[in-house]
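Changelog-linked ticket: magnesium ion example.
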Amino acid sequence: MAQSDTFTRWSVIASGEGGGRIASQFFDRTENPGIDDRILVMNTNRADLRNTIDRLSDQIQSEQNENEMMESHALEFGSQQGAGNFFPNGEACAREDLDRIVNRIKDLSTADAFMHVATLGGGTGNGSIPYAIDQFKRGLDDLDDEGAAEEWMDSVIHTAFGVWPYYYENPQRHFNAVCGLSRLLRTEDDQQNADMVLLAANSHLDQEENGGSRHYDSINDAIITAIDLMIGAGRETRSVIDVKDYVTIPSQMDAYHFTPAVATELNGDVYELEYMLDQAAENTYVPMDIGTTSAAYAIVRAPEAMIEEDVISEPDVYGAFRDWTGKHGINVAGQASLTPKRGRGSDVDVLLLLGGFDLNPLLDHSWDEFEMLGDSLAGQSRGDSADLSKAELGRLVENLEAYVEQNAG
Ligand SMILES: Nc1nc2c(ncn2[C@@H]2O[C@H](COP(=O)(O)OP(=O)(O)OP(=O)(O)O)[C@@H](O)[C@H]2O)c(=O)[nH]1
Ligand SMILES: [Mg+2]
């Protein structure tokens, strides 16, 4: 078997405008080890979808023209042309077209793990992604056509990347985000939904807080860098950490939300590893207290030549990680890994995946905004196809509160 067959095969599945923009940045690169071109961008709105694909084909030198890209990597779903920034509409659209969504995912060819991507402030991605994950994990029982699922789909691991709205965005965005996080984490009957939920907050990654699409580009770059490091750790023969390692123990602990913390291009000839881990820890993707972390993975990526010449070794990385967790008083489930990148030089990249931390610093403001709106949105029907009952909303709140409380320490 060729070595590449032994690596985890990922598919990236994005829904909504922001999710689509993030996923489309994968096309903008010469290679995506682990993903190749298994990328699907979905939206309820054809014009938005077209924009994403148009920008893409301008950027990349692809043999595929725009129409072919639309055919192979894009899917319009639902009959509503948009979700009106109300997540139950996004969910209703996905329910309506679940069979088409599943068929398109199947067309990407088999995968071992999905990386689902959505912004949590919107209605389309945030409404559809948690629903789609739940459906996959239930064996797609909403589908009329039972033949639609294939065997490999049963064992796929579902990781999700959710983007928190800017602090200053309107209450409706924060309402969506609170509900979206609840639904990514928990099913309606309070079981685990996604196997791993990764979070990034726009305000935290964009200190200038101006919004606008220029800033999205740099935030989205940071998100792609984290995903890249995470996937890369499962691809080399040294101390491999693979997606099963990321999800198994945190799920057992009911502590499966994570944030990346990243530092790149650190001079590995000059800096100690422990210092590099500290640098990464200073750049978490959401506001959090490191001391509340209960699961952590460290991925150190260094040039091949540095590893061969023993400038940096696996025992160094394990030792530094142990010292680092000790220093922060974190008693964590975790693992460290050294992964090579091509070439010489001395640039080292570090990813910490920090999990099970106290979510309150991220949620505080959003809960306030949520409470302003919660009751006014429940019991109402907006748009033609979906509504949100008080009981449903109550469950979302209870499920999230219980999860957060348990992880608050
Ligand atoms: N990081 C990042 N955030 C984005 C991007 N685009 C939009 N957002 C954020 O996402 C939220 C809006 O969600 P959209 O992605 O536009 O919504 P949607 O999924 O298309 O759903 P609709 O509400 O139905 O349009 C806001 O909180 C924005 O700040 C992006 O490219 N990157
Ligand atoms: Mg949209």
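Closing comment: Example verified and attached. The longest strand covers residues 257-267. The chain is about 45% helix and 20% strand.
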